[in-house]
Amino acid sequence: MSVSVEEVSSSLVREYLSRKGLKRTIACMDEEHPRTEASINNRSHLRQILNMEGLYRKNKSPAGSPTAMNDTKTEDSKHIKSSSDIEEICPSQPIYTSLLPETDRLSSHNQSGFWAYDSEDLKGQPLGASLQDNESFVRRELEKKTSITESTQRSRTNRIRRGMMAGPIACTPQESNKKRQNRRQEVLRKEENRQSMDGLLVTGLHQESLESGLTEISSADCVGGQRELRSAPERVQRENSFEKVGHDLLKTKKVKSLTRPNVTDLNVSEMVLDDIDDDDDLRELSKVSFQRTIAEHSYAGRPMDQHTAMELKAVLLGSSLNCFSVEWRNQGFTFSETHDLRYGIVQKKGGPCGVLASIQAIVLKKLLFENIKSSDTGLQRLRPSNTTRRKCLVLAASEILWRAGEEKQATIAINSGRNHFTPTGHYKSEGVLEKITCFMVDNIKHLQLLLEQHIEQFETGVLGCMLLTISAVLSRSIDKVREDMDVPTTTLIGAHGYCTQELVNLLLCGRAVSNVFDNDIELDSGNGNMTLLKGIQGHCDVGLLSLFEHYNICKVGAYLKTPRYPIWLVCSESHFSVLFGLQRELLTNQDKGLEFDLYYYDGLANQQEEICLTVSVGKSALSCQDVDTDLIPPLEHCIRTRWKDAFVSWNDTEPIL
After folding, report:
1. pLDDT computed for residue 323 by the predictor
2. CA distances from 251 to 41, 255, 280, 603 (A)
3. Whose CA, among 48, 481, 493, 604, lies 20 to 30 Å from 341?
4. Which helix or strand (DSSP H or E) is residue 87 part of?
5. Does one domain contain both 321 and 423?
6. Residue 453 and residue 595 in one domain
């Protein structure tokens, strides 16, 4: 196979950099110009291509000594002869051991319990004679291989003679020496055991039984040009060891491609190609990789099609020709970095506040009331770490989608980054729905796992708010969302990009009903026509307080006023924010002298400090007699829809009017 000029030149550059000790340059070159299968990784091969054999011998001999030059020629001739023997005996056999250090080849030869010989003094002898004299042969071979191993440890010139180019270190020199010493000790033990076993066979068995226990020398069993004598079980063992070596080499290649060495830790003068052992870290990495991909393997993603995209736009925006506003396309669930408000999700512009307030309320429920340590106070839980609040975001999104899917299944919409269909007909493209891939799961653990894997798209991505909304609609199904509404043509995103009550109810209660009162109400429209108004069917985890009730526009039922946790969405002036307490007891305590704190958070108000309100029940009638009702903050009116005549203290905080 011809070698390209580029590969020859890159190999020359690597050799030069290795000799000069320019380790950072080597690391940069390997990163920008990585090695390929066609790369030249053998110095002997490189010398042959460049016709530099004569110059190499001259440089190797001290002061041009004829003796040294003759020794070099003799050594090279032996090397060439050994190579020709390999091609002659087993031309098509892959030479696994040529890729390993000499000590590794010695160990791999002896693991299967056979003797390989190529020494001059054994040539020409019959097979039976060599076996009968195996004790002296074993001793000679052991001494020779031991001396080779020791010389390999002492001198680095053997590595050069092996023809290996310098490469990244797979382990430290101390670890490599320790491995080789362990291998050498293991080889010596096996040699001694084999020697004693052979002695017993020669002295205790009949010649015919000895010959019947031997197998023929097969050219397919050659390794490194050496003839091997083995029994049938040993051949099987050796073949298995070949498979193991090949598997280890592939694993080593994969590991090296995954791990990039630190250039400051490289010692180019000691760079050798060496094997590496399986590592606990790699096993842990495989476990993590398996855990993070199990859901995707179990539930294949379904690309968005134009029909579904048109239906989604119709139920969200009213028509497939409408588009999402910039406020929706640029909104994710990014947390505040203000110390006292680390639990809060920041809203960039008006519009999707209903979605943000809904998931904010569920995040607070996870932070304050679920999986908490007894030693943590409420205020400590309101200062979560990045990991904790991200985990709560995953759990909150999972709860919303699982509830929308009736706790049987859920659908997650993920931005794949590429278009899955080309819009045609009455559909206006904006590059959002075309890129979505949907994953449908029927297990909440897999749901949490998938969301954790893609949580960056929701938290820091610009489409996070839209992805959660689309996922909730698909989890409920578009048909059921329309059935939930009083009027099927109602949209989930209303005028000016505001969230409708149907969308908020879908996120809070799992059903896109149009009202906030308890249960359903039938109205007689006359002439036997009945109109069904659909409301909340049971207590929710978080509730709702609405300013519209203060103006007698609507009635919020007890299911939303008295949720399972002291967390409420506040609907005031077409905007949704969050009000919450730290004690669940305030939901059940009917004492007229009750006094408690409520915390208020508005992600759109660029809030910079914590707002804590003290609510006193039963004292407001006297305290508010001289107060101008026009100056009462809307938030206080919302609070009094839940606690009538309550007195609200802003605790030196500027009231929000």
Report:
1. 94
2. 19, 6, 14, 50
3. 493
4. helix 66-89
5. yes
6. no
Set 446, 575, 637, 638: catalytic member: 575
Q: How far is CA 217 from the centre of its chain?
A: 51
Task: For 380, list phi and psi in degrees, rounded to 5.
Answer: -65, -40
358 and 224 both lie in a single domain: no
Q: Whose CA is closest to 309, among 482, 473, 451?
A: 473
Same domain, 107 and 164: yes
Distance between CA atoms of 141 and 131, rounded to whole angstroms? 13
Instruction: Among 222, 251, 278, identify where a domain stops.
Output: 278
Among 493, 488, 520, 519, which residue's Cα sits nearest to residue 504?
A: 493
The pair of structure tokens assigned to 436 is: 């979505």
Among candidate residues 463, 489, 514, the one where a domain is terminated: 514
Q: In total, how many domains does the chain have? A: 3
Establish if 80 belongs to a structural domain.
no
- 323 and 417 belong to one structural domain: yes
The verdict on 210 and 358 lying in the same domain is no
Q: Can you give the pLDDT at residue 461?
A: 87
Let me know if residue 65 belongs to a domain. Answer: no
β-pairing, 543-546 with 567-572?
parallel
Alpha-carbon torsion (324, 325, 326, 327), positive or negative: negative
Cβ atoms of 274 and 170 within 8 Å: the answer is yes
Distance CA 83, CA 64 (A): 27
* Same domain? 261 vs 363: no
Strands 436-441 and 529-533: unpaired
b/e code 155-190 from CB counts within 10 Å (16+ = b)? eeeebebbebbbbbbbeeeeebeebbeebbeebeee
CA gap 588, 566 in Å, rounded: 10
Q: Return d(Cα 388, Cα 367) in angstroms, integer.
A: 8
Helices (H) and strands (E) in the chain, counts: 27, 13
Strands (E), 557-610: 567-572, 575-580, 595-601
- Which residues of the chain register pLDDT less than 50? 64-132, 156-170, 200-236, 238, 242, 245, 249, 251-295, 621
Q: What percent of the chain has pLDDT over 90?
A: 43
DSSP state, 491?
A: -
CB atoms within 10 A of CB 527: 5
Contact in structure between 236 and 154 (CB atoms under 8 Å): no
pLDDT at 86: 38
Asked if residue 456 belongs to a domain, the reply is yes
List Cα–Cα distances, 21 to 196, 261, 482, in angstroms.
Answer: 49, 16, 72
pTM here is 0.58
**Is residue 641 in some structural domain?**
yes
Q: Catalytic site residue 307?
A: no
**429 burial type by CB count under 10 A (0-12 exposed, 13-18 middle, 19+ buried):** middle
Catalytic residue among 90, 109, 222, 353: 353
Is 637 labeled as catalytic in the residue annotation? no
Question: What pLDDT, on the 0 to 100 scale, is given for residue 582?
Answer: 93
Exposed e or buried b per residue across 476-485, where buried means at least 16 C-beta atoms within 10 angstroms of its C-beta: beeebbbebb
Helix, strand, coil percentages for the chain (3-state, nearest 5)? 55, 10, 35
